[in-house]
């Protein structure tokens, strides 16, 4: 019992995250894509190396490299070369390095998956659900269905990494199928599912009502899994439950755009987050933090970063007063920019979506708490919850 | 146009904050009993059929007698790792973030706990503390 009741320990500081946009090109033409025209601009190796060198100098001891696009697997050659370079740096500097790849999985082969797994890179597959739901908004760029190729890639990933994570964009155009999507993914063997409402979509009150109804059904599936002794992690429900169990989100749980998280575009422009790179055109450059080829040390411009951080603190009064503020991601910079064009003000639809998620999460968590579900108790209460720490010298 | 709107009615949810739970020794004992009962069921029943949920939620929350049990699954192992990563190292519960430290083959077998053994979270805690201590020492 003493072991169970021991106080929380100071966990390692979360790694600094550098998301590298390897290419703007993509072989899909998703209806809701925020990444702009799918041209062939790709990351020059020298640009990436300069950016990587800077983050190694400023990561404070742990680094996560994220491979992003466009579709990053279109530049497999670049990915392997750059990750190999970064791994060498990590070894020589004795800095733990991890990696993530966000992909549509259409080009994911068993050989590639083996390489990724062997190099410590976890995979997140973008898939919107079963064939009908997925193809509604995620067709091939050449036209036609992308579903069978995506599903095949997902299976390759799951074969090698059972905890492969999926990301499903929730949009007014597919929200009526949300529960069906989760059912499909669970049947496919996915155990980590992220449902990500599109902040830039044109949500109306009916669409949000459907989202809430569908999330209630997803909550029932989540309950069913736990009651059957099968653990599953479904965002946004589990994140909201943990936010309650922890007694509120800490700084380290919140958006780290421009601080612990940076993105590098093929042009060399630094951005606070990969979702803010977009087309890296005039509109997006408003949020750029400098260019790795132009700043003295190759990093983001410190003055621009300071301005960004000041802007991020300009939280709307509604959010400051909200009783759910300590469990809400109202400070997600990229969502805010996509929804309202400002970095600190969330969109009304995201506000409603957060409230819906908290309500459903609390309903299902209360049910398992009252039942004394052992899986729920073990996995949500009797794991040590680390406090936020900050290492000296980190960015 | 949808606008920011704080909830009109808000009540604290009826499941506890972890720190409050751990501060309540009676509640901790109740939970521990439920977990011990679950472990005992595992040891006696091996990997038999999955238990079903109770017919009705107990009137008084968290009585060991009414607690359903869960059999170990291969999933248990990697989800434990996944959640450990999330709770201990990864954190950052921003939608879309994934833990990056867990890669277990699909064939991983989870051995049931031995009688008298510490709960897995406890042994994990020890490891974590040791690791933290080593880090501090360095």
How would you describe what is shown here?
The complex is a heterodimer of chains A (395) and B (138). Chain A has 395 residues and is an alpha/beta fold. Chain A has a single domain, classed as Alpha-Beta Barrel (TIM Barrel). Chain A is 43% helix and 12% strand. Chain A contains 15 helices and nine strands. Chain A has a nine-stranded mixed beta sheet with strand order 7-6-5-4-3-2-1-8-9. Chain A is globular, with a radius of gyration of 21 Å. Residues 1-11 and 390-394 of chain A have low confidence and may be disordered. Chain B is mostly helical and 138 residues long. Chain B is built from four helices and no strands. Chain B has helices at 18-23, 25-45, 74-90, 120-137. Chain B starts with 17 loop residues before the first helix and ends with a helix. Mean pLDDT of chain B is 51; it is low at 45-138. Chains A and B meet through helix 1, strand 3, strand 6, helix 8 and helix 9 of A and helix 1, helix 2, helix 3 and helix 4 of B.
CATH architecture of chain A: Alpha-Beta Barrel
Oligomer: heterodimer
Taking pLDDT < 50 over at least 5 consecutive residues as the criterion, the unreliable ranges of chain B are: 45-138
Rg over CA atoms of chain B: 19 Å
Overall structural class of chain A, as computed from helix and strand content, comes to: alpha/beta
The global form of chain A is globular
Structural class of chain B: mainly alpha
Q: What is the count of β-strands of chain A?
A: 9
> Largest sheet of chain B, described in full?
none
Distance between the termini of chain A: 39 Å
| Average of per-residue pLDDT values of chain A | 92
The overall strand count of chain B is 0
Biggest sheet of chain A, strands in spatial order?
Answer: 7-6-5-4-3-2-1-8-9
